[in-house]
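COURSE: Structural Biology Practicum
ASSIGNMENT: Worksheet 4, Part C
STUDENT ID: 0417
INSTRUCTIONS: Below are two proteins. For each, the amino acid sequence is given first, followed by its structure token string. Answer the questions at the end about the second protein only.

PROTEIN I
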Amino acid sequence: MAASIDGVFEEILKSSILSARVLVVGAGGIGCELLKNLVLSGFEDVEIIDLDTIDVSNLNRQFLFHKQHVGKSKAAVARESALTFNPNASIKAYHDSITSSEYGVNFFKRFSLVMNALDNRAARNHVNRMCLAADVPLIESGTAGYDGQVELIKKGLTQCYECQPKAAQKTFPGCTIRNTPSEPIHCIVWAKHLFNQLFGEDDPDEDVSPDTADPEAAGDAGEDALKISTNENGNVQRVSTRNWAQSCKYDPQKLFHKLFHDDIKYLLSMDNLWKKRIPPTPLFWGNLPDAVAGSSRNEKESGLKDQKMWSIAECAQIFANSCRNLKNQFESLKEDDHLVWDKDDKNAMDFVASCANIRAHIFSIPQKTRFDIKSMAGNIIPAIATTNAIIAGIVVLHAFNVLKNNFESCQTAYLRPKPTHRNQLIVPEKFLNPPNPKCYVCSPKPEVTLCVDVNSMTVKDLEEQVLKKTLNMVAPDVILDGKGTVIISSEEGETSENNPKKLGELGIADGSILKVDDFLQNYELSVTIIQRLVPKDGPDFEVVADPSQLKPKDDDKVESSTANGEPDQDDDILQVVEEDDDSSQQFDSKKRKTDGETEGGISKKRRTEDVIVVI
């Protein structure tokens, strides 16, 4: 292969390519294209890591994989396929998660550069921090349909992946999901929660029963009903959904009657909810409509199998079949194990699609096809092979410039679905984006302010909701500055007794400073506590990277926000920034919210938007 690039590159670049060691993180749509481009460009020392196995749905765009590879490691098969392009290349494959403790800073220091081809924000954040700690250039990339983006991340020279806020997935109030759905997505989220309640990881915050703490609901009636475990008058069953389902042996008719009749009758008893809304209609198993509302028979039967509309009677039969199959799968597992919802698992997908459509019918919401529900439930944005190929090509061009130390030529580039007014499809920014001096990751002294009620937040919530979920840490250690009290330890069991305690019980008060150290990410952060009561229907806490944002703002100043960020997707998909055609504007984003489509804390009254992060 060395001879094949003779005369293609200048000697210095050729030598750099042949000696470079490159890490590719992700072996999906972009990852496959990247690996092929690298070995054909003369790179001979490449390592690739991916946790996933190959699914049938990957085959339309991840061209290194074929039908016989389904179920095998993406990284391993990508390696085998890439070697057919260049047998002289040395490719090492890891079927593992890049966030594993085995891949620390010293692992990253071995590489000349790192290329991200990831499918989720948490892993992107982690690789960003590891590359900053190892001082290794990172080329970040992603696609969303016909859109694409490539950017260089270089410590001290460019902004890092977390310098600017990322738009979070849309979130919904828990009471809307449980009591008053008005859109198909509300029913789909409810159905996914129901799957977890019956067969998956049982999370109390994903309870699907009517929410008696809904402030709109009828006052004392709901609280009284909480004391009732069951009755014959249609009141909601106030026991564990899984325990009840197991007691009736997952009988589909009994499940149907409880979920789509009894619980609905209970909701109807909350009079205040239906003063300005169309009330739901309870269903009876033996009397279900066999037609699709608003559709003719020809429309109902047209199209591909997954694109046909189901009648409610059909939904009930699909619900019954999927319940039986999932029950068998669940009961075959080891004790304390559970099923994990997967959009590509037929029974799991049938269960969610049928439940969502039945609930939609009850609340007079338009039904969706199984195809549409799969896209919405799996947060899927269509991935296009040609877009992946173009973006992967730009990544390798950036790699050439990195190896030549020509960083100034690595401006962030955007691929557009249609030409700009300058007739450009690939639009580079004019300059490299400099680091955000207020970034809580790459600034010289990372610090944030945490506004929280220390008398209500527990240490466990601090670790899981603030440090891990919001600030993207993996294994944080926390010490109360000035007192030396260890609040959280990454050593298993060392501070477990602190988990249920309120922050105030451990001496954390207004003005306290927490020193946080994530050894795995080689990342230190100073957290200043500001005591505040949780506002009604407001976020439980607020993380502020720029203290000036805590000051009142002038009424005539309007904050701007970006739309860059990506939902967790099936592939290496990034929802790219929409901006002016010359792509030269600097971002001035101020707010972001954490990911999540469900409420994730203690109070069931609280909206699912339980945190605000201000940069």
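PROTEIN II
(use this one for the questions)
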Amino acid sequence: MTFKIGFVLLMIALMMGGLIFEIARPDIIVFAVLTVFLLTGIITEEEALEGFANEGTLTVALLFIVAGAVQKSGIIEGSLIKRIKKEKTVAGTMAKIFLPVSGFSAFLNNTPIVAALTPVLRKWCEENNIPPSKFLIPLSYMTVLGGTITLMGTSTNLVVQGLMLKQGMKGFSLFELGIVGVPITIAGFIYLATIGYRLLPNNKSIKETVQERSREYLAEMVVGSDFPYLNQTVQDAGLRQLKGLYLIEIIRGNEKISPVKATTKIQEGDRLIFTGVVSTIAELQRIKGLTLETGTDLSLDALKNGNTQLVEAVVSHHSSLLDKTIKQAQFRSKYDAAVIAVHRNQERIQSKIGDIVLKPGDTLLLLCGSDFMNKFKQSNDFYVVTPLDTPAALQEDEKKGWIAIGILLAMILLVAFGVLSMFAAMSLAVVLLLLMKVMTPADAKQSIQFDVLLLIASSFGIGTAILKTGAAEWIADGLLQIAQPLGVIAVLFFVYLLTNMFTELLSNSAAAVLMFPIAMEIAEKMSINPTGLAVLIAIAASAAFITPIGYQTHLIVYGPGGYRFMDYVKVGTPLNIIVMIITVWIVYFVWIS
């Protein structure tokens, strides 16, 4: 091992540690390692920048825009609602939801599909007295499986395609990955519909939990005539800087004031509703003129008025709220919403609401004002996972949605018949969407997940460093020493398992970029078809089912389903094994033997 190989492997190990322990956002960590390689001369400026101009990366950006136009219309979730409206059985609902979902996922970004359908399934489950936890992990898993059917099904496929073209290989056709993708999707559905869902818990949502245990979440204080701050603002009364409590609503006769502003004035007889660490209520009881209301039948529904609604939301992976406290983010004024509770890893965070530092996947229970919908639509900070009472004025234009779907289908046909490349087709699709005013430039910008693009683009430079220094050859030699005596199929299993391990711990695209140069070295040394190993890498990098951090969509359903880490292990491990066995054997017989 040379010094350069050792240095590159050390930096890769540090990068993996940073990603696993979440010391910063994944895109920042990977970009930092890329910068180190650039500054130390491991790679040149041109090599560091090649990922930013790569066809695969740019195609992913365009697909975000096209998928955003389709998802914004609400047509997909609307059509699925009609399909399950009269369905009462678990198996029937799974067939009517999950098979079409995997089809949609073959052509659209998985994340918005899961974010859009989670409230639909939640509502159906509540109406039929079925725990949502039986459906949400399978929903996420089926979108992941569906994404393996086509070249455009997931960013990982396009990243591998970009790496192949860079190596001078032909690349995948639009449906080539479907040779593996279709069988594993069918097998995955059969497993989830017969065995998988039985392994899932019967969990309640955060809203139901808070509803049942409202006394642990909410406290009510009544303002008496001797309160020293009558007719003064909440700020002046010192009710904004309490140790463990957060004022979310004021009930004044038949009027309910929420979210409460710092300038709201307090009057005699007001009922002040607090949330947070309710055990710290003694601090409030020491204030003259405030009396704790005991034996109250206060519930979540009692907090709502005609202009407010209760919403569960999951903090997204590219949220501007990440690593900030709720107070620092000025959440109340930014979203016209008060945070009632925050759950992480199925546990309520026992802290003053304003002091909680938000992480990806955190589930928030919000009491939202009338401006919430407008403000939510203008950001990518979180996924709403309960149905919203959307005003008619905000309903998306269905006609525009069908135009977007028509353009997408036309582009798919042009790619399938070899008239245009994927990049050219998606470029044309975006131009048509803008010219036909299906979406505005602002909508297009909002649809792009820049953090994902930075991670993918930076990963290309990391892959170049691994290949250029000889680290890929060194790792390939080590793998072959162990696996080659056992035969080609054993080598394929080793490559799949290593890729799958990386993707469970890191990210799909990063895992693909790390393993691709190693796989190509193995293909050259064993004189086997490199396309087969590229297919193996693409599928293994997507098939992450064992941990909630393995795929973005798993974290979207983590909180709403009330899951624990081990739920993913129990259900995902058999699915991982099924997908691995099918993939390895198909790759061997179609591309290798």
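ANSWER KEY EXCERPT:
Q1: The mean pLDDT is 85.
Q2: Residues 28 and 536 are 28 Å apart (CA to CA).
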